[in-house]
Amino acid sequence: MSELFWWIFASVATLGGIGTVTSRSPVSSLLFLVLSFFSLAAIYVLLGAHFIAAVQVILYAGAILVLFLFVIMLLNLGHDYRPDLRNVAWIGLGSVAAGVVGWSLSRAFVSEGGIVQLGGQASIESSIRELNAVGAIAQPLFRDFLVPFELTSLLLLAAIIGAVLLAKRRV
Amino acid sequence: MLIESLILSSILFTIGTAGVVFRRNAIVMFMCIELMLNAVNLSFVALSRAVGIEGQVFVFFVMTVAAAEAAVGLAIIISIFRHLETVDMKSFNLLRW
Question: Which of A14, A90, A164 sits opposite B12 (nearest CB)?
């Protein structure tokens, strides 16, 4: 049953990605991206990462993509239907580059098939049973990754200051 | 489901790469970069099934970087739009060569 749902959501995610690249209006491109991100959240649920799925819906589909939508509406780009494809040389080069990237990624992933036997799933399930879905992520985050977590706040501060400075009319 | 998820993540990454190269609209290019970041997140979550919960912790850091990148990048796009009245990458050639 969950295999069937996985295939449904995987095909919706892929179609959403293709729609993002191919649709002409930036708004419909963005809505395809939201569709793709929601089905990725469903795939996270199927993979057992419930908290990541919730964060994906709240943070990505809810905050970041709405920020994109605000910018599109602020700049009034919603009906910008001028063709914006690059010329043939770029498209040929880009197809070759994307093909190489996709081929090498899928080859690397498939040849790593032996990792399935490592059994991380059992340890994740036992820690979720012990600490519940949020605690299972919070414990390594605040124990083993505390310094990177604190450095993240520095990154966010820099981003806030940078965004305010860039968006100000006169510096 | 693990290997299939990794294949799906490579497909999404490829679509994102193609979008960044094919389109000239800066906002659509930016959305394709977000799609590539999400493909990486999917591979982290899938690999966390094999290796352990640390993969899901990394997804948090990737999401933080994505949020910071979206804020700064969209501010840059807004300030470019103020100068040039367009978001077409064809006209942003000041820093190109």
Answer: A14
Give the distance from residue A25's alpha carbon to the nearest chain B alpha carbon, in angstroms.
Answer: 9
How many Å apart are CA A30 and CA A112, to the nearest integer? 34
Q: pTM score, two decimals?
A: 0.88
Q: Which of B5, B30, B31 to mutate to test the interface with A (most CBs of A within 10 A)?
A: B31
| Residue B23, beta-bridge partner list | A85
Tell me the nearest-neighbour CA distance from A66 into chain B, angstroms: 11
**Option in B63, B72, B78 nearest A162 (CB):** B72
Same domain, A39 and A100: no
Arithmetic mean of pLDDT, A89-117: 75
Query: Which residue's entry shows tokens 């299972």?
Result: A136
Residue A137 and residue A151 in one domain: yes
Closest CA to A56 of B33, B70, B66, B51: B66
